[in-house]
Amino acid sequence: MKDAFTSILRAVGENPDREGLRDTPERAAKAMSYLTKGYGQTLDEVVNGALFDSDNSEMVLVKDIELYSLCEHHMLPFVGKAHVAYIPSGRVLGLSKIARIVDMYARRLQIQENLTKQIADSIMEVTGAAGVGVVVEAQHMCMMMRGVEKQNGLMKTSMMLGLFRNNPATRTEFLSLLR
């Protein structure tokens, strides 16, 4: 990656040997590795057995989980938050694992629509929940810094599975808790 960033600097008309840029290719390569570290993670590793028996059958909601991702179309950041809820069906997931699942998928080249679905599908798979609801809201630098250059656009996506899709009361409770 370091060589690729050196080539990019040359392609934009810069001199990668000038003082302020000498270490930039290496720093940029390290940053890109960090921003895409989700490729090196698996769902099993992230969850790490943190499932606990529970007779709770009421909604569990974690709101405002910060996320940072890169759009797969322009490799520019999108930044926002995820709200993740599920209805346990015999097991609950360790609280921090929900945020770690969000991070694992966000740290891949991504579109928000797929990120939302991946989070929901994974929570459903891991917990065997009766239902999962995920809402992601983010601002996209590819829309803010280039193209239409709109600074206040906020994209919201949702994925509803199980009871969140089939039971209007469950969906309404979830969405009202986000207000």
Whole-angstrom Rg: 19 Å
Structural class: alpha+beta
Under CATH, the homologous superfamily of the largest domain reads GTP cyclohydrolase I, C-terminal domain/NADPH-dependent 7-cyano-7-deazaguanine reductase, N-terminal domain
Strand order within the widest beta sheet: 5-2-3-6-7
Residues in β-strands, percent:
25-35%
Provide the CATH top-level class of the largest domain.
Alpha Beta
Rounded mean pLDDT is: 97
Low-pLDDT segments: none
Quaternary status: single chain
Question: Could you spell the SSE succession in H and E letters?
Answer: HHHEEEEHEHEHEHH
Report the total helices.
8
Termini separation: 43 Å
Share in helix = 40-55%
CATH topology of the largest domain: GTP Cyclohydrolase I, domain 2
The major β-sheet equals: 5 strands, mixed
State the CATH architecture of the largest domain. Answer: 2-Layer Sandwich
Instruction: Assign an overall shape.
Output: elongated
Number of strands: 7
Number of domains: 2
What can you tell me about this protein's structure?
The chain has 179 residues and is of the alpha+beta class. The protein has two domains: 2-35, no CATH class; 45-177, 2-Layer Sandwich (GTP Cyclohydrolase I, domain 2), CATH 3.30.1130. 41% of the residues lie in helices and 27% in strands. It has helices at 2-11, 24-35, 43-47, 95-106, 112-127, 141-144, 163-166, 168-177, and strands at 51-53, 60-71, 77-87, 91-93, 109-110, 131-140, 155-162. The strands form two sheets. A five-stranded mixed sheet has the order 5-2-3-6-7. Helix 1 crosses helix 2 and helix 4 packs antiparallel against helix 5 (112-127). The termini are far apart.
